[in-house]
Amino acid sequence: MKPFTFLHGVRLCTFVFATVKIKKIHFKDPFGHSIGIKRIVIFVFGLITYYRLNHLNKLSIEGVEHLRDLPLKNVLFVSNHQTYFMDVASFIFIFGQVKNRVQKISSSFWTLVNPKLNVFFIAALETMKSGILPRLLAYAGSVSIKRTWREGHKEIKRNADPKDLDKIKLAINSGWVITFPQGSTKPFIPGRRGTAHIIKDLNPIVVPIVINGFRRAFDKKGIRTKKRGTELSIRFKQPLEFNSKDDLDNILDRIMDGIEQSPKHKAFRKFTT
What we know:
Radius of gyration: 21 Å
Number of domains: 1
Largest sheet: 7 strands, mixed
Order of helices and strands: HHEEHEHHEEEHEHEHEHH
Number of strands: 9
CATH architecture: 3-Layer(aba) Sandwich
CATH class: Alpha Beta
Shape: globular
Structural class: alpha/beta
């Protein structure tokens, strides 16, 4: 038997590198946030979210089958909005359950050790800078942008910042993105055309979400509990299909109808307040 030589070692290394797929380890997300810190933030907030959804209140979830086969990126979730932070925290928690193929969604918290990291949510920059807690939550995946219609308590009008549009595009090209077309927690107010522009320009898969009960269970920010034992519901609906020929008004109308915030739903749906 011939001795193992340096040349044999070179050949062995060449064979290993040629036949084994080496996965690159990322230490930061597309926005430069540390993946390690992001995991910690999602874990801590996730434990709190799990407890508030399943022990302080009663959560029911429908339509998870619409999430099972979604691609890893280029997905936009559009939802009605009832609290600043609890809505988003609930979605991130559920998406982690879907990633880990949990059969009974929201029934366990072990999935927090293996969260879905490429989830992002579009939020107002001033909101995410309004305190220590929002700044920490921003690490979970905030795409913080400047509002075009309001700054503080003042009503304004300004064009969208191109840098904000680039951030949204980067997020959608990197994973799943959550947005609230109304830009407010007030029910049944008109949606804003920014979401329609995103859909028309980037053509993502669009999944409507309808939530209820959060306004009764939590305060406006979603931090303080108002009423325990509230029945919470999250309903994921079948993805909507759009094409580049759809005009912005038509896209927006379909979105608002999908999240059940259009005028025709106002007369028939009773929201908890």
